[in-house]
Amino acid sequence: MSDNLQSAYQEEQHKLDSVLQEIGTQLARLRAVPVYTGHDFTEQVLEAGREERRQRLIKSEPEPYFGRMDFEEEGRAAPAPLYIGKTGLDGRDPASLPIVVDWRAPVASLFYSFTGGEERVEYEAPEGLIGGAVHLKRNIMVRRSELERVVDTYTRGGEEPAVSDEFLLYRLGENKDNRLRDIVSTIQAEQDRIIRAEKNTALIIQGVAGSGKTTVALHRLAFLLYQYKEQVSAEKMIIFAPNGMFLDYISGVLPELGVGDIQQRTFTDWAVKQLDAESMLADPAETLDFWFGRSAGEAPGDDAPGRFKGSDLFRGMLDAAAAALESSGAPDLEFSPWEGKVLPYETILHWYADEYRHYSAAGRKERVLARIHRWIEMELKPVKPETLRKEFKKKAAQREKAYAKKWPDFSPLTLYKQMFGAAKDARGILPQEKLAGIPAAVLKSTRKDLKENRLREEDLPALLYLHLLLNGIEGSERFDHIVIDEAQDFSPLQVTVLDRFVRGHSFTILGDLSQGIHAYKGVQAWEEMSGLFGTGETSYHALTRSYRSTMEIIGFANTILAGGVANAIEAVPVFRSGNPVRLIDFGLEAEAGDAEAAGAAAASAAAKALRALWGREHKTVSLLTRTQSQARALHAALQPEFPELNLIDGSMTQYEGGLSVLPLHLSKGLEFDAVVVADAGASRYGDSEWDAKMLYVGCTRALHELWVLHGGATPAFLDASGEWSVPGWPDGEA
Ligand SMILES: Nc1ncnc2c1ncn2[C@@H]1O[C@H](COP(=O)(O)OP(=O)(O)OP(=O)(O)O)[C@@H](O)[C@H]1O
């Protein structure tokens, strides 16, 4: 250890001792106050505040801070050290500077935005821009209240160049378990800009695989809750992610950041609840099996049901259908509660079409019917004698009921069925010529589904959209912020619908077009989404550095993009080197000749790869297949030797980590220390962009080690990967 480092270490040890002592003192004082359990409201509020402080102190004790920055504010005589932690820690004297600054505080942004070269820096405080100079930036690792590591990433006037990546590389080199983790100590400047971006914009983030999109989105939520305390609440924020297992995988980050209660859902789960249509939904696995089970090279086109039903063209049809139903909403009838008394159709129409025009169709119907009811009561009042009034009243009640039935029910499902010719009752004037654009195959399959009362995932956005058009939305149903992860798999219509469910277009929309493997429903360009918002309502950010994988893995994955995906953005690796990727030919092609022998060869190669990789230094190892049925077959073949092997399918809501076998599409968003692609042969993956994207997703799940097995030739887009890979088994094994 150099002298400088030794003295820095001693200095930090000293500081840590004093901070821990302060935490201990504050905790002891709070614990000395008896917990209030009575009914006095003021006392209850005070007790809640004390409990919150107790919990914060307990949480910060093992790791009170992770960084230090010595900042000389302009106008001040000397730099002051700022310690930055996951939660702030105030001194007992309210006038003193905080002992630890919360990472989300404005001044802490300097810690992330400062990269070493800037003479003068500034940050945005509530009182305006504050400028000054940085003298020291230091990473400090404390674990279980012990000082473990001190790394200076910048010293003003220092002889050594800034080594800002050393600490980051140390963190990235660690093995991962079954949970995504927070990155507060190593957030990079480009990520920090996104985390701290203005609340009321739809942020669209294109980030290469492993660029930290999911992680950044979660940190952004924690930031918004801190920065806009008065305007947002955790219960009014929601994260949409692709499946239950992925939600489980990310579920630890927010509590780690001290944030609870944020809803984390799949769009499908949320939408069926909104529509109260749980029982009608077909098993989503059917759709996945259909698309991913197709043979190599057959990419879905724009007429795929999901693409069409999420398109602008279809949205236009939904608008037209809803407008037609709405304008013909009031039945073309006068209302007569008893003989001789008539409420003319013109009056009813005037109420419906003019007086209540600001309400949704269903709201107008409700108001018109309530007004008719009041009109009946008024008209009844002067009727004499009493017996006649009673008779009229009874008659009016019957007629009122019968009349109400003549109104449409403004149910989105009924209208949707009418659009597809699947409803018994074709009430409502539908502009049939406008529906002519529905592709014949989509019309046929959807009509069949709807006649059998079955909905597919791709129907849900359209139904919700109709619901919004016909029934409107209550202010209380709106979210303060929505995060859409893996947004390349969302359709423009889904985002349009969600935009109605959020205040001020407050979105974080993140994804990677190169990972758009659900091409049968997702977008192909971000303009499909940004075009949904007005000027100034949206901003676009690109993340190109990848933090997950070694240089070799990223180099290999980049060649897949270069050879197989048009206009893809290649990832820039952080300088972390590992083993070259292994490309291992096990000889027999999957689909050719003897399928059984080919399956056995693939399983035996997979077993050999797992023997080499599992149980050594890696905590998570996965075997990735193209389809669920291949995963099932490999699981059956390998389980006798690897009883701990988990077979993962789309219905799972927990992610165990360890050793797993799963189809590529379910591995999206996850990461593993080592990945074995089970069979990347040309008979499994064609030369289409879709196939290239699938393999790209699979390969970029690996942190440290990637082995790609294949039976026979590989797809052409792997031809140039030789720079980053070596052929065959290690040590020349056959
Ligand atoms: N600034 C950082 N410091 C340390 N680790 C980071 C940083 N940014 C990202 N990572 C790590 O990189 C990995 C990838 O992050 P994450 O899963 O959020 O990326 P992603 O862009 O959502 O990936 P993908 O699109 O491939 O699913 C995680 O292990 C995360 O902890």
TrEMBL record:
The record's listing under PROSITE patterns reads: UVRD_HELICASE_ATP_BIND
Cited Pfam families: UvrD-helicase, UvrD_C_2
The record's InterPro entries line, in alphabetical order, gives: DNA_helicase_UvrD/REP, P-loop_NTPase, UvrD-like_ATP-bd, UvrD-like_helicase_C
Residue intervals of the UvrD-like helicase ATP-binding domain: 186-550
Q: Which Gene Ontology CC terms are recorded?
A: cytosol
| Residues where ATP binds | G207, V208, A209, G210, S211, G212, K213, T214
List the Gene Ontology MF annotations in alphabetical order.
Answer: 3'-5' DNA helicase activity; ATP binding; DNA binding; hydrolase activity
Protein's GO biological process = recombinational repair
Q: What keywords tag this UniProt record?
A: ATP-binding, Helicase, Hydrolase, Nucleotide-binding
Q: What is this protein called?
A: AAA family ATPase
Q: Which organism is the protein's source?
A: Saccharibacillus brassicae
